[in-house]
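Pipeline run #58 for the internal structure catalog. This entry was flagged by the ingest filter as a single-chain record with no existing model, so it goes straight to prediction. Upstream metadata was stripped on purpose; only the residue string is passed forward. Reviewer on rotation: M.T. Logging verbosity set to normal.
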Amino acid sequence: MNLKSFLRFTVYHSEKTLQRLRFPSQPADLPILLGISFPKSGTHLLDQILLGFSNVAPYARRLHSFYAEYEGESGRKRSPQQALDWLDSLRPRDIASAHLFARAEAVERVCSPRFLPYFIFRDPRDVVVSHVFYVTDMEPHHVHHAYYKSLPDFEARLKVSILGRPDAGIEFPNIAERFAPYLGWLDQPEVLTMHFEDLIQDRVRALNRLLDHFLTRVPLQTPRSLILESLESSINPAKSPTFRAGRTGEWKKYFTETHKKIFKDVGGDLLIRLGYEKDNNW
């Protein structure tokens, strides 16, 4: 462990100890709060909300860690065992965040009493638009950054974000195939599934659902209104390095008829599965 990691480890566990002292009546073995997200779907927003529970319960005041199935700079896919090792490294009262595939072994761990899991996703059409901005303008070290910059315009980049790069030599499939490994989370009753759009358009209802899920495992004496206020006040888009607009339905500004056609070809069924459309007549 290098010095930076050691200092972070020390600060983190010192803060957890102080949190335990703040809430002595709460059990020490509270479940791990795990925010699972599909990339570009409100990861930081969910993280901030879950961290709001640290104001009313002895949870960590910062994320324990973040896990992604792919390394951003190299595009290398991590092994299933790495995901399991990461899950096993978490401890009670941690709050953690992950782009985590719903493989059978991961589902078994996450849906156990050790975890209190949430899964957030977003309209995949807005995801691909957000992906273009992120790779092109916000993350110069991203494995696809140079390629996206080499393309002539936004329309060309958006087409790649929809169709993927099957001949790139690194794994980057189309949007439906990218989402497929996450679909299993939708079928787990232990996991609260959330549309990103609900947190933007109907935040009160969404936060109440999120809180109800929490209270099934962590009973609190704090008045409900104060807990909700804590969750709401924890949201700070300025602290999200990738939060660009926080609006929904922005894809309509960027999709041409060509983009609509290719998206329907590869991802029309996904939109229906996620509840964003009833058919392909959009």
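catalog note: The domain at 3-273 is CATH 3.40.50.300 (Rossmann fold).
catalog note: The chain has a mean pLDDT of 94.
status: ready for reviewer M.T.
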